[in-house]
Structures are given as C-alpha cells and as structure tokens.
Amino acid sequence: MTHIIAITGKGGTGKTALAALLVKQLAGTRGAVLAIDADPDSNLPETLGVDVKKTVGDMREYMLNERKNMPPDMNKERLLESKIYEVLEEFSGYDLLVMGRPEGSGCYCFANNLLRGIMDRIIKNYDIVIIDTAAGLEHLSRGIIKNVDSLLIVTDGSRRGLHTAERIRELANELDLGFKDMYVVVSKTIPEHSEIIEKTAKDLGLSVVGSVPFDDEVAKFDLDGVPLTSLPESNAVYVAVSGIISKLGL
Fold it and tell me: Which among 80, 151, 89, 149 has a CA at the least distance from the CA of 117?
C-alpha cells in the first residue's frame, strides 16, 4: 500500500528542506520512494543535490502542441504516459519527478485530464511518495495527485503563520480533498518559544507532528548551495525530521 505525503504551507518556512530530508531518510530504507516536485519554482532537485533535464510541464507542452497532428484513434493517454516515464529520473534510493510549469498560454485541461489517471498508475509503483507542493493546494485541488495520506502544513512559529496553517486546513476540508491526516510542522523555532507555539496551535485545533529548529548549519548550506542530503545525522534539524517520520509511523 502506497503512503503519500504532501507538504504545503507558508512560503519561506523550509517546506522544500523538509521534503528533501524526508527523501534522504526514507530512501532505501522504507521500500521504493518517489519524490515529486510539484512547486513551479522547482527547488527540490537542487536541495537534493541532483539535476533534471525535463519536466512533466515539458510533456504537457508537447501534448498541447501536437494535439492537432495526432490521428483521432491514437491513444493519447498512453503517449503522454510514455513521455512522462522519459522524465522520471532515477537516483540512489529514490526516483524524482519534477512537475514544472506550463510555458504557453493555452488551456491545459486536455493534458491535465490525461495526467490524472497516469499519476495514479505511476504512484502505485512506490511504497512512499513525497510531494513538495507550492505554497497552496493547487496541484492537489486539480485532482492530479489524489488520495494523500498525510498532509504536512509547514509554518513558522508566528501567530500569523499558525493562522495560515489553519486556513490551509479549512480550505482542504472545503475542497473535500480526502486527506486521511493533516498535521502542522512548525519550522525554524527556538526553544524559548516552544510552549507558547504549542498552546497557540492547540487553541486553533491544529495537530503539531513536530518542530524543526532554526539551525546555523542548515542556513549556511542554503547560502553556499550545498545540498541538504550532506547534512550529518547528528544535526538538530536532521534529528527533528527523524522524529516526524516516527510519529507518522513510517
């Protein structure tokens, strides 16, 4: 049974860093792992220290541009599926699929409708799927990626940040996206604020699955362009993500 984790939340709070460290710690230890970068900015490959050449967005462009030239009886879903497997990159312990962004001005409903069923088939080949989404629920609300088991809403420890997490939870419920569990990950915290953060989250009815501290080493990695996969296991952020994995039962 595939366990799908989607990561969303307030921008600039370490969403992609969390995704990368989940991939790092789960790859090769929990069965087949698929990482999906669904953020149009596509920062996950850099954070993992890998390069990708093409994206699903490129394949959507291809389908949109070639649609009129295709014979009416051509199986367009099979064609798009074969194109997506071309951009599915294999790395040590995990595979990576970058969604990318559409470049043209046309309507992508045709390609997105094909993509929904294809993503279901691809995801079923893996034990764990980790999706780094944009700061919102766009990819999930389109139904391209469905049946998410754990939605992790990443926010900072500010009251505004926690209210943002509350709004994302409410939007997910309004859209009836069918998440099995929704949790908050509080990022870049300092120990002195832990108690008030937990109280505020509890007052808002938010379930906090873990707190990730602010860390100078992680900040330096980011400035120097060093992938977080190089982070030592003794690092406080690495340890915090290990605790989140345990609480998710993975």
Answer: 80
According to DSSP, residue 27 is labeled: T
142 lies in which domain range? 3-247
Say if residues 130 and 34 touch (Cβ distance below 8 Å): yes
Residue of higher predicted confidence among 193 and 151: 151
- For 107-143, how does the pLDDT look when each residue is reduced to its tens digit (9 = 90+)? 556 666 777 788 888 999 999 999 998 766 666 667 7
Query: CA–CA separation, 208 vs 162, rounded Å?
Result: 10
Distance, in Å, from the CA atom of 211 to the CA atom of 162, rounded to the nearest integer, reads: 13
Averaged pLDDT score across all residues of the chain? 85
Start-to-end CA distance of the chain, whole Å, equals 12
Distance CA 149, CA 181 (A): 6
Report how many domains make up the chain.
Answer: 1
Higher pLDDT, 13 or 46: 46
74 or 103: whose pLDDT is higher? 74
Nearest to 195 by CA among 176, 180, 208, 182: 208
Q: What is the distance between the alpha carbons of residues 8 and 152, in angstroms, rounded to a whole number? A: 6
For residues 28 and 214, the model is more confident at 214
**Spatial separation of the C-alpha atoms in residues 16 and 39, rounded to whole Å:** 9
* 150 Cβ contact partners less than 8 Å away, ≥ 6 residues apart: 3, 4, 5, 6, 179, 180, 181, 182, 183, 248
CATH number at residue 236: 3.40.50.300
pTM of the model: 0.89
